[in-house]
Design brief:
By secondary structure, the protein is of the alpha/beta class. It is 40% helix and 20% strand. It has a six-stranded mixed β-sheet with strand order 1-6-5-2-3-4. It has a four-stranded mixed β-sheet with strand order 9-8-7-10, sandwiched between helices. α3 crosses α12, α4 packs across α5 and α8 crosses α9. It is globular and about 65 Å long. The chain starts with a strand and ends in an 8-residue tail after the last helix.
């Protein structure tokens, strides 16, 4: 966890929570009593991919909330406290660059999107989560200790996530096109996205990032539900990868575990029984967990240090 903290006076405070991922970010603002003043979504906020894009997305969402409230961003009559869970925090140069950008927050606490999601899922209590969105990461909090599994980035990790599903669909499509696999509906649908133009398809595949590959994931999910054998096999392999994350997180398999992310509902039925038996619904959202992060920090004594 990384933070930037200035001297704080507890008066007219606004608490901002940010859940920033590879495809979108969600921002909420609460007042001192915990009343939510607004919640908005905007574009990507993965700082490993683009610090500039992340700040733009966050600021856009903040403006969407503040303008109807007739509050100017950074208004000095308020104290601005922000907790942010951002994808890409594990890259040192990325989070340092993000912190060095100009901003108006008196308190700025930055941690991984997995950490804030876990805080939200279990309302700050001990527990685990597995995020299955564009990427995949497991995170656990137990007796004040945190454990992270996976989430090292695409394509070298993030197995089982949306980007990985899209990449697997591309691999299968290429094998169908050159005769290594028999024709399949999934391959036909993927190829149709490029108007059946091989040059366009291959050019895109060699330039696409995780966000772009993840746009093909709904095709895999759709065809899996319709019984396409290639799509079902991809989903089963994705579930096997998620099972490994669950086992690595909690060897005793005693903590509750919440699944988060757009892919999670479609992969849950393929998971093994040990992991499924631990799954519990999320109590709060990841952006609410980001607010918990900064509120907990400010509640601690001697919180006027920087680290």
């Amino acid at each position: 966890m990384h933070l930037l903290l200035y001297n704080v006076v507890s008066m007219q405070s606004l608490f901002i929570g940010v859940d920033g991922g590879a495809t979108k970010c969600i921002v909420r603002i609460e007042d001192e009593t915990g009343r939510m003043l607004g919640r908005e979504m905007s574009g990507p906020a993965n700082i490993r991919l683009s610090v500039t894009q992340a700040w733009q997305s966050i600021n856009l969402a903040l403006e969407k909330i503040l303008v109807p409230l007739s509050i100017t961003p950074g208004d000095p009559s308020y104290h601005w406290h922000a907790g942010m869970g951002l994808a890409g925090c594990e890259v040192t140069t990325a989070y340092e660059s993000f912190l060095n950008q100009p901003h108006y927050f008196e308190t700025l606490v930055i941690s991984s999107d997995a950490h804030t999601a876990c805080l939200g899922a279990h309302s700050g209590r001990d527990g685990a989560i597995i995020i299955i969105g564009t990427g995949v990461v497991g995170f656990q909090v137990e007796s004040g200790q945190t454990t992270k599994v996976g989430g090292w980035g695409f394509p070298h990790d993030d197995e089982g996530g949306g980007a990985w599903l899209g990449l697997e669909a591309v691999k299968e499509t290429l094998q169908v096109l050159d005769g290594r696999q028999p024709p399949a509906n999934l391959a036909n649908l993927v190829y149709a996205q490029f108007e059946n133009n091989l040059d366009d398809f291959v050019t895109w595949a060699n330039q696409a990032n995780s966000t772009a590959f993840a746009e093909l994931a709904p095709l895999v999910i759709q065809q899996c539900q319709l019984g396409d054998p290639i799509a079902r096999n991809i989903m089963k392999n994705a579930a096997s990868a998620i099972n490994k994350v669950g086992s690595a997180l909690d060897a005793s398999q005693s903590l509750p575990c919440s699944l988060i992310g757009g892919i999670a509902p479609f992969i849950e039925s393929f998971l093994n029984e040990n992991l499924r038996s631990r799954i519990t619904p999320c109590e709060r959202t990841p952006d609410a967990g980001a607010v918990l992060l900064v509120r907990d920090l400010l509640a601690k004594p001697n919180n006027n240090t920087q680290e």
